[in-house]
């Protein structure tokens, strides 16, 4: 399986790490928000470490036996640890014919996964051909406390020439002992001009998506190409007509959309909806104070019409939804929960 090239803003970090050669740390913590490119970077780096004949820039050659195994997804020295829920393949995401729901799967990286990794690493000390072994753990903050404590032993006493690549969206959620045993590589946002130019090269013409993705071009491209982009457009259109829509009907539409196949396939859930609504309200506050919207640039006209002179109401609604976020994962009644939010939003237009 081929992978895309690294964007230019990630190349300085690449050159720095590849220049270290054998002085490479045994554990790297790649930090940055989702969509910053750290996952793509980790994939390239793992392949380069396992390749027998990397090219002049340090990238995997793509032709040797190791690269062939990597492309097929079965290299014996590459270990990937992800949340248990992502490892399991659900036979049916909906309720079964008997009305029983599928057993809930863990969204954490659990101790059994770490112990299985450790057992695999203990078989031989230098990989299948005496070279490196690479472990990708993504995201590191998904480890529960037991799993994190178990991993500490491997980080303190790595087996052979194993290199750990820990990816983290929120590194402050990691145990300090985990962070202290890794060298941190930060993945900052590229300059807006650089990000916009890259998106145009990728065929993404909607400039507003970059602001909505917090300046992260890979996340903006995913929005443009996936179901989330259409969900965003639907929501922006509804919020732009908030003063004329029935809030109870709006809540019913949101509930149906959250249960739709596109939303389920792209992982769009209640916490995401609340996050997007708060972005709209934050933009309303900005526009009411004469500033341009940060996330919904393409809805500037609607925001100007709805939010003008209503900064306090938008701020109050923002705080109200923030209070709702505590129950967003498991509301007792999803419809009533959404109706309360829709009524709160409707009051901003009064």
Low-confidence stretches: 89-104
How much helicity do the residues have? 40-55%
SSE string: HEHHEHHEHEHEHHHHHHHHHH
CATH class division of the largest domain: Alpha Beta
Number of strands: 5
Any idea what the CATH superfamily of the largest domain is called?
Answer: P-loop containing nucleotide triphosphate hydrolases
Q: Provide the residue-averaged pLDDT.
A: 89
- CATH architecture of the largest domain, by name, is 3-Layer(aba) Sandwich
> What fold name goes in the CATH topology slot of the largest domain?
Rossmann fold
Q: Shape, please? A: elongated
Number of helices: 17
Q: Calculate Rg over CA atoms.
A: 23 Å
**Total tally of structural domains:** 2
The oligomeric state of the chains shown is: single chain
Q: What does the largest sheet look like? A: 5 strands, parallel
- In spatial order, strands of the major sheet run 2-3-4-1-5
* Proportion of beta-strand residues: 5-15%
């Amino acid at each position: 399986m081929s992978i895309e090239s690294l964007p230019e803003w990630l190349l300085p970090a690449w050159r720095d790490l590849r220049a270290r050669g054998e002085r490479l740390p045994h554990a790297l913590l790649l930090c940055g928000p989702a969509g910053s490119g750290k996952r793509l970077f980790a994939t390239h780096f793992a392949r380069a470490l396992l390749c027998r004949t990397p090219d002049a820039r340090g990238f995997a050659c793509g032709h040797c036996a190791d690269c062939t195994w990597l492309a097929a997804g079965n290299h014996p020295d590459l270990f990937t640890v992800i949340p248990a829920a992502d490892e399991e393949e659900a036979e049916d995401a909906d309720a079964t014919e008997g009305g029983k729901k599928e057993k809930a799967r863990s969204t954490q990286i659990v101790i059994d996964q770490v112990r299985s990794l450790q057992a695999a690493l203990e078989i031989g000390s230098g990989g299948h051909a005496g070279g490196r072994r690479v472990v990708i753990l993504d995201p590191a903050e998904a480890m529960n406390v037991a799993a994190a404590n178990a991993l500490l032993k491997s980080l303190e006493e790595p087996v052979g020439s194993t290199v750990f690549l820990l990816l983290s969206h929120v590194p402050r959620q990691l145990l300090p002992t985990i962070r202290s045993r890794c060298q941190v590589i930060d993945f900052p946002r590229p300059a807006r001009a650089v990000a916009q130019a890259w998106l145009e090269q990728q065929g993404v013409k909607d400039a507003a998506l970059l602001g909505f993705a917090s300046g992260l071009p890979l996340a903006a491209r995913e929005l443009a190409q996936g179901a989330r982009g259409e969900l965003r457009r639907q929501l922006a259109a509804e919020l732009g007509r908030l003063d004329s829509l029935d809030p109870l009907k709006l809540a019913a539409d949101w509930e149906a959309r959250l249960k739709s196949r596109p939303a389920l396939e792209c992982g769009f859930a209640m916490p995401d909806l609340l996050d997007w609504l708060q972005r709209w309200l934050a933009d309303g506050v900005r526009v009411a104070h004469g500033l341009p919207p940060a996330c919904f640039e393409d809805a500037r006209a609607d925001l100007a019409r709805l939010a003008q002179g209503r900064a306090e109401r938008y701020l109050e609604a923002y705080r109200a939804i923030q209070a709702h976020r505590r129950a967003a994962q498991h509301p007792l009644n999803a419809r009533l929960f959404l109706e309360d939010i829709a009524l709160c939003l409707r009051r901003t237009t009064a």
